[in-house]
Every structure is written in structure tokens, then in C-alpha cells.
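pasting for the record
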Amino acid sequence: MIKNQINGAPVLDRQLSDYIHFNKTICYEFTIIVPVYNEEGNIFALDEKLSGFISQSPLTTCVLFVNDCSTDLSLEKIVQVCTRKKNFYYLSLPKNVGLSGALKAGIDNSYSTYVGYMDADLQTYPEDFSLLFPFIEEFEMVMGIRTNRDDSFVKKVSSRIANNFRRFMTKDGIVDTGCPLKIIKIESAKRIPLFNGMHRFLPALIQLQNGKVKQIPVRHFPRMAGVSKFNLRNRLVSPFLDCFAYRWMKSRYINYKITETNIY
């Protein structure tokens, strides 16, 4: 029987049709994952910005909203957008699992060649993915560095302290791990282990796989609606503790490659 490819893996024709019916992201080259928690004021603005980017993206692109059990009208507005717009999809979680959990849920349910990530606060714009695209074949992850950050003094200082401590602990060499604008090859993304605080260590976790990470300056904008979900505790205390969890994981991480198989 004639075989096709799903991200490099051959499948039978009848299996391909069943798989496409099951998960639509496999029809795209690039899926943008947008975790959402109580961002009702930003959903329609996200729709506008993301729709504009999709229309000019060099890769076939879709959006996957991940509603992290929002308690406002975020889910209702997401459903409205996904109902009237093609290329927009969503997942909704029954309980709040935090940014790391929502992001991992998006990765686990994406089957495009690449997955991207951006926050729902629109402090980075999707069109800046275009700055990352030229490097996606050579690197397992390409990510932004926020320039001219439009944040409060306290947020800037706390982020700088947390970033410096993380770099000291992980030796990952990443300037701005908090920048949400990232593109990851799907096979690398699916190997990222899930734990609380995972989102802070995405570059380091890619490096654990012997993957290469590229950093590119991107723009940064003030939040226009909603409120930040981060405070001094989850910007300083939690990252410090998570660094020790990462060090423990790094010392025990198993990295393997398959050299031969007849499974396909």
C-alpha cells in the first residue's frame, strides 16, 4: 500500500486520513500555541494580530489556544474566534495547571513540523516570528530577546535577578529565557519533560537533548488589557527553587538516539 509521511514517519494511506481527521494541526507546518488564563480583554486583539500574521506567513500556520481553566469570558471569546475563523483551534483544560502545564498540553496536541509559543498579553507580536524563521532549519529552538522592555522597574529588576541566577545554575547562556516568542522543532518539543516551572527552562531543556538554540532580538510592548499573572514570589522565589529541580534533572537526564529500527 502507498505510504505517506507524518513529520518524517511513514504511514499507510488509510492511517493518514484517520490521523488528519483526529488532529488538524498535522496539516500545517507551524502551530502557534497561545496559553490563556483570564485574558478576555485580549482575545479579539489576538485574533486580529494572529490573522494578519497567518495571511503573510511563509509557512502554513495555525493557532492553538490553550484555555487554562479561565474564570472570565476568555473561553467564550476563544470559541467565537475559532468558530468564525479557519486556522484557529483551541483546547480547554478542566482545572488550572499553570503556564508550564498549558504550554505542554499545547505541545502534546500539536503535530505540525514546528511549534511556536507566545503569551496572550500581546507584549510580543506574532509578526516577529518572521525574524526567527530564517534560523529554524539549523537550530532546534529559535527564541527572542526582548529589546527596550516596556515593564515596571520592579519587574525589570526581579527578572534580571532571576535570569542571572538561572544562567549561573543552568549554564545555558540564554539572555532572556522569559521572552515568550519561541519556535521549536516538533520532535524536540515533544521530548521536553513536564514539571512546574518548565517554561523558564525551555532553552536549557533543548540543550539537554544536545539541541542548538539561537537568540534573536524582538520587540516588546506594554500590556494593553488584563493584568499580569506574575508577582515577586513567582518571579523570584519559585524560579530559584526550580533551578535546583533542573540541576537534579540534568544530572539524571537520559538522552538517547535510535540508530536502526524496522518499526516503520
